[in-house]
Records
---
Amino acid sequence: MVLSPILLTCAKGLGLGLLHALESDHIAAVTTLVTRGHGTRRAAVVGATWGIGHALAIVGLGAILLALGIRMPERVSLLLDGAVIVMLVLLGAQAILRRDQHPANGHQPSTPRTPLRAMAVGLVHGASGTGALALVVMTTLPNRLHGLWYLMLFAFGATVSMMTLTSLLSLPIRAAVTRWNDRSIRALRLAAGTFSLCTAGVLFVETTAAYARTSSPSSAQVTLAASAAHHRPAIAEEEGSVDERLREVIVAHGEAGPWAVAGYRMGEYALHQLDLPHHSFDLEIVHESPAAVQFMCIVDGAAAATGASLGKMNLTHVTVDETRLRTTYRKRSSGQTLVLRPARAFVERFMNLGRRDFAAAGRVVMTLPENEVFAVEAATPEQTPR
């Protein structure tokens, strides 16, 4: 039985959502809440309210990004990551400083503030991840309806997973409350707080490194700007940083190797020349190449740059021999056509490159002048309707 695209989308969103709740920063945050010592049922409520907050952010912000067809600015994403770091520090410090307080047992009423705090934590986590998730949806799914279903099932899966996780985490806490001594309880809280602080430290290093990359141009970009003034202005200045564009290639292709990045560069150039927006149904792409990995990587790169896809029926591959390698971009409404092929210097430099060098080579390709990456084989001007 062949499943419909919408069912496959739902299944994928649900499955990835179930895994998403198990990320280290999520576990670190909710563990500090669960170690307050409430029972298993109360712990499940904590997981559920975390999931509600997480879903509100994911579905709310994600739907806005999908409706507008825009990406969340990278610096905004980094600021939201910073909010996660601050939250983890506060939760970890609180767990350590209050480790001597005896938790409520199953017969004592527990404070309602813990579920509310869990919802706030979920909101922060959801907002932090929405930009990347929406980018995945926009570059891999055929339409906004599929994207919305994906976001909702993703959020639901994360909620179910977190409820299960918090219930399991509550078992040793409950045992400590009813059977163990206060020293064991303090040790559990100290471990949870330390884990939260360590996770915050790792995220801080990663986030500051990402921010540094977006704040200053790389040496390769500076050299390029100085030596290639006769070329068209670098698209990186128009459409985002090198790292942001490389991440788009990774989302679509799995890694940003040189051939996928070359396809991305061609797709960017074609959109600019044809004056088309990302995800335009007015664009048609036909890629002609051998059915071999490095040549086919160009297709994924072009899809990442333009939003074209097999599902939209505006991206096609035709198997030909290597001498006829080329990609044709056509504006359907006007007939304007652009035919691009990898530059000879590019092919000689990056043909059959070892996989361990893919990431470094992909970054190089993203900063090369256009004429060292691809050549314009033919271009048909826009035709004026009679």
---
Amino acid sequence: MTLSQLHTIALVGAAVGVAACSSSARTAPPADVSFAGPQFVQLASAIDQFEIKSGRLALERSQNPTVRSYAEQMIRDHTASSSELKSVAAAEGKALPGMDPAHAQMLQQLQPLRGPQFDSAYMQMQLQAHREAFAIRQTYAKAGDDPQLRQLAMQSTPLVEKHLAELQTAWTNVPAAPAASSAAPTR
């Protein structure tokens, strides 16, 4: 399975998975979906790197206490997640890859924004990244090919669910960006 196909599966699964999460139900990924450990490591690492770097940017650009608090938590939690992933990868003689082009582009879109436009775009991208993270972790936990990575995916899925729930709560404390701005995504 190519990385592009895996991204598509993750995004489709994310939409279904988050819809299920928001109603407290869990949706299992399709039984015939599986992917290799290196693909899981690449995607999980890319998301962790995006969360860390966008969180640091939020601490520089946001004045909203809710956004800043959420960013601090994302830096802390995704640094820990990345460290765990790095340990498993190192045990197999592999290094973690950097951020992929899709997440690098998301980060680049945040760069010029400030104030409420930044806050709104950051929170929207957090939602997108966490939906993707939930989908890939849940899918790999059910059908991954590497037992250590499957265990890691199982252990980290509840934290991603927690982040999604916290994001929904935090969202109510982040004012929408002014309508005149076309730079910020809509909710």
---
Amino acid sequence: MNDTATGSWKLERDSDGIAWLTIDKPGSSANVLSGGVLSELDGLLAALEKDLPRGVGVISAKKSGFVAGADIKEFTGITDAASGYQLIRRGQQVLNRLAALPCPTVAAIHGFALGGGLELALACRYRVAVADERLSLGLPEVLLGIHPGFGGTVRTVRVAGVRPAMELMLSGKPVRAEKALRVGLIDRLVPEAEFISPNAPFPCDMAPYGYQWFSSQDRSPEAVLGGVRAAAPILDAFIDEALEQLGLGSGELALVGFSQGTMMSLFVGLRRAEPVAGIVGFSGRLLAPELLASELRSRPPILLVHGTEDPLVPYSSLAAAETTLKAAGVPVETVTSVGIGHSIDDQGLRRGGQFLKKVLSGTTP
């Protein structure tokens, strides 16, 4: 994983090509969008524009919540209309830059997203939130006589519609989980979960940066299997350590992968003695299918999603994996993303979220 850290933000790129923007403002119990925080974000977005990832996730490292809003203390420095305009315009420009990224962007929200925090989330293409009693989304700055100045007046209407948006902007009252989902502020509600992305162990041998689970230079079955077998104990150990640290059992764990991540999740997940809750795989394939019957140790439910126009991992891999898994008694669902290449579309994200909610809530037979 490639890391770039600033004062309040950390940019990480995982082995699946996803960039993670984590906000953690030092010396503060809650994140706020001060001028410095926005400037740091602007610089990281510029870097992402030059080297576009497959997707971007925006998350908070604070246990209290996502982002509380703009830094109210900075408002005391506004001495005239020009300085007020400059402060607001700066926030608009940075969030517009986030919204303009041509790759999927997702805000992962827990706790609260208020004021500028909600505006930050609205600048992302998707919003996923933890469904608990703490979730609170709103624009409370109107109670201070301040309108949502970072684009919230426009984006709230676009996302939630006129009536819910006006209610938020005129009353200042926050909305909770179910209502946020109902009016469209949130695309998906998920159970409280810990999201952990392991670093692939080996430097990428086909690019000057990044890491890989196994080499793609020699794609012969023997070479690929050898690489996977070398990486599998590393992933297995990572899973065991994470479960122990979090005090969780295998049945409370779901594996999610893209491309090589899918291949590793299937290879390791099906060979663990204690079954995981489920496996979601995007744009991958089942490696060494001829060995599955003899090496299979558990049968977790699996969802596989694949694009029909994938130039790297052929779409035919989906049917081949489904046939082998069903023959081994592994419950498997598949989703075909028509016209999609080596990527993930809205349908795939939606079905993946539904599947994870099902398996992690224990409703899978």
---
Amino acid sequence: MPGSSKPLRKLMVAIGGSPDKFRAKLFPTWLLSDSAKVCYLAMLYIIASASLIQSNRWVLSVERFPFPDALCITQQAVTTCVAWGLFFAKQSWFPTAEVLWNESGLSALKGRLTSIGAAYAVSSFCMVIAYGDCSRSVVAMVQDCNLPIVFFLTMYLGIDRLPGIASLTIMGAFVGSVMVSFTFSPIRWTQIGIVAEIASQMLLLGCIVAQDIIMNRQQQGVMLVDPRSLVLLVAPSSLLITTLIFLSSHFGRYDLEPYWTPFVWYWPFVMFNGVLAFVITVTTSYIIKYCGALGFLIVGMLSNLLIVIGTSLSIHGLNEMIHSRFGCLELSGFILASCGIVQYCIIKWHPDCFEPGSHLHGFLRAYRRIYLGISGKTEYSIDICSAESHERQHLLDHA
């Protein structure tokens, strides 16, 4: 019968024994595990971040649309319009927002959501000032400090309880990232730029920690917010504050006319830039939901490392980097930071493998568990197989 699925089903049974076994062979279970989903989110974030950086560089060139403050407003506007458009089209995609929309529960979260949006808007404008007055290396080195600060803060407050070896991996990632950032571009900074960058990172850290609390660690009696609803409810306040800052900086100057002509010519590219910003915002919320504030900072550091090392390799080439002092320093930092990030992720996902005083054996146990998971086996099944083989050998010996 044309269109029938029986031939395909027979083929699946012939190859795998059953459709379920065939799908298990084609798509191993570890590809659909929680760890794999986090990896997919991290990959999406890295790709979207690299694309947004290239889009910003192209759009903000002098001959196109050289207005970073207006681009910030456009990104916030696109994020708000897309999020609320999807909400009115399919409210079930936003569980928390649907409940708050139909009931009077928004007042319990209104202050926090408004604060997050306002802090993110101010942070974006401070970042614009920092990028204008400081070189990329200085900005990146200040951003690198976020990781150890949040790590030791969460450990001190008892939010995360990890083995002591985790602090060594975090410091290795931090030192390696600073080495990469230091060698990326010449050091150039001003006092205003440094102050703006520090203020931007403090506000950004506040936003990240607040999102972690709202989605994962809300107090009793207050509803936990899902990632899509968080983006939906935070976007309007962020757009409002961004617009107010932009208009107040141009109040009484009557200098908005130069903005319109470039925008009319390049609005499709500006809108595409806003869509990329929306993707990054949603991905950020999901990463914070599944990995927490520290996990998001690690993903952000990994993204910066890959972007920087990719840019350096595309400009100078591997051979030139290996034979230059700064190139070797950058490659060494990349290797050190990558190893620190990987080892921390192993500790985070398998904390029960690590016991006090046996960190090396803890890593070996974690590596073994990862290998068994990838190969489709479990430690329990390995023990059962071993016991069955011993029993079979015993019966053969006494037959």
